[in-house]
Design brief:
The chain folds into 3 domains: 72 residues; 65 residues; 94 residues, Arc Repressor Mutant, subunit A (Orthogonal Bundle), CATH 1.10.10. The protein contains 11 helices and 3 strands. Strands 1-3-2 form a 3-stranded antiparallel sheet. Strand 2 and strand 3 form a beta hairpin. Helix 2 packs across helix 5.
Length: 277
């Protein structure tokens, strides 16, 4: 508690003491009333407390307290104003010496380190102009780089298109010399193989199953000859409910069916002609 009070008083005293007016007023008041403060410190030992207080009252009677206070305030203002005026003169003298006299002396002593203000402004203006020119050229350089990159990209795309067109024309020329395979040749080979294996009847039964939409188990689908027909893409399977599958004939299977029907019809015609003979 005592330390806090002491710290508060100390901070308050520092704040008041650092105030230029209050500090100056205190010093002026002590100097102007030095007799009073000197008497307070060195009273005659024969004087008692009542006599000492009477001395202080008589002092302020002969020296009016309000008038004395106002006079000290006036002295304080004059002192503060005079102090700041002298500080200003001192600063002006220091600046004149630092920026006026010293450069002139150095101008004659070392011409390489000191320049005049006019020359400095001229060089600064030239530097700013050169900086603007550099920035403008730098910006134009970036624009030219972007333009060159864009043109290079367009040129690469043009070369790529030309290369693709050349390859396509070459491929077309090569393809024009190649005779495409006839899908009927593969169908004829498959038909011959079915006839050789005697699977015509089995094929027709599977065709009937597709129309009947019979439900077949997976085990039945991959038993011969069903697996042979599914393997050669003559039929496809579709899952149904309950783990069963249905068969559907493919376009290839339909072509094979038409071929079988046409072959059987041709045989019937031949047989009928032979019987008529």
């Amino acid at each position: 508690m005592i330390s806090e009070i002491y710290a508060s008083l100390r901070d308050n005293f520092k704040k008041r003491a650092t105030n230029p007016f209050l500090g100056t007023f205190t010093i002026v008041y002590l100097i102007h009333n030095w007799e009073l403060f000197y008497s307070l410190l060195y009273f005659d030992s024969n004087l008692n407390l009542h006599q000492r207080l009477e001395y202080i009252r008589l002092y302020f009677i002969y020296n009016n307290f309000i008038g004395n206070l106002l006079l000290c305030v006036l002295y304080t203002l004059i002192t503060v104003i005079g102090t700041y005026f002298l500080l200003t003169l001192g600063r002006a003298a220091a600046d004149i010496y630092e920026f006026g006299i010293v450069p002139r002396i150095k101008k004659y002593i070392d011409r390489g380190q000191v320049v005049t203000r006019e020359l400095f402004k001229k060089v600064s203006a030239e530097r700013d102009e050169l900086q603007k020119m550099y920035d403008s050229e730098h910006e134009e350089n970036f624009k030219l780089r972007d333009k060159i990159k864009k043109q290079e990209s367009e040129l690469d795309e043009m070369y790529q298109r030309q290369f693709e067109m050349t390859n396509n024309s070459t491929d077309e020329a090569v393809d024009s010399k190649i005779v495409p395979n006839n899908p009927n040749d593969d169908l004829d080979l498959l038909y011959d193989e079915i006839v050789k294996k005697k699977l015509i009847k089995s094929f027709e039964e599977m065709v009937d199953d597709t129309f009947k939409r019979s439900r077949l188990e997976m085990v039945e689908l991959y038993k011969p000859p069903k697996d042979f027909f599914i393997k050669h893409d003559l039929f496809i399977t579709k899952p149904m409910v309950g783990g069963f599958y249905s068969l559907e004939i493919t376009p290839k299977g339909k072509r094979l069916q038409m071929k079988i029907l046409s072959s059987e019809h041709r045989k019937e015609l031949i047989n009928s002609l032979e019987n008529n003979k």
